[in-house]
Amino acid sequence: MLTSHFALMVIYALQVSLFFAVLWRRRFRDRARLFLQMMAGMVGGGLLLAWLMFPFPWSPPAPIP
Amino acid sequence: MTKTPPPAGAPSQADGFLRPLLVAAAAWALPGSGHLLLRKPRRAAVVGGVVLFSFLFGCWLQGHLYVVVPEQPLSRLATLSSMGAGAPYFLARYLVEYRGDILSSTFEYGKAFLLTAGLLNLLAVLDAWDIANGSKD
Fold first, then answer.
1. What is the DSSP secondary structure assignment for residue A41, as one 8-state letter?
2. pTM score, two decimals?
3. Low-confidence residues of chain A, pLDDT below 50?
4. Which of B125, B37, B23, B137 is nearest to A26 (CA)?
5. Of B45, B94, B89, which Cα lies nearest the Cα of A18?
6. Residue B103 contacts A, CB cutoff 8 Å
7. End-to-end CA distance of chain B
8. B54 contact residues in A (CB cutoff 8 A)
9. Which of B30, B61, B72, B87 could cross-link B110 (Cys pair, CB 3.0–4.6 Å)?
10. A60 Cβ partners below 8 Å, 6+ apart?
11. What's the CA gap between B105 and B131, in Å, rounded?
12. Which value does ipTM take for this structure?
């Protein structure tokens, strides 16, 4: 089973970017550009959010019961 | 004043509505088939491929396939979204009796993929409708 959060995020971003690039653009060049923009937005945005949330929570994690 | 009859071979108003309806129904039932009927094989391959991949990948991750739970109103929306995938949803639910495994560590991820498959296919249905209607190429 694939349990890597990052790999799952990249697979998700790949399929969604491909879908919208093909559905919303007609020329290959425009499709490639939208695909790369969406990939960068989703993967980069996810990494940025992860980095911003890195210090949280302030308190030590609750013990596992 | 007399009305001139439409030229022979011109699509009637009923045909103008029926064709997009049939294409949309096909696009919903079998992902990609709507665009295939519209002779757009590349787009059909991508739409069908992405929707089927997302659905099967979600099942492989043991994600939750939504069904209506009367006590949870939002489950109706989620079920409708999942049903957007068309035949794969009904085959998984009734033929294979797929339920997902809540103990799986990828249960929530799989749920996201299954919901996405349905929602993407619904967007593809709208796209096929627009192309069949003539409002998009």
1. I
2. 0.86
3. none
4. B137
5. B45
6. no
7. 37
8. 15
9. B61
10. none
11. 41
12. 0.84
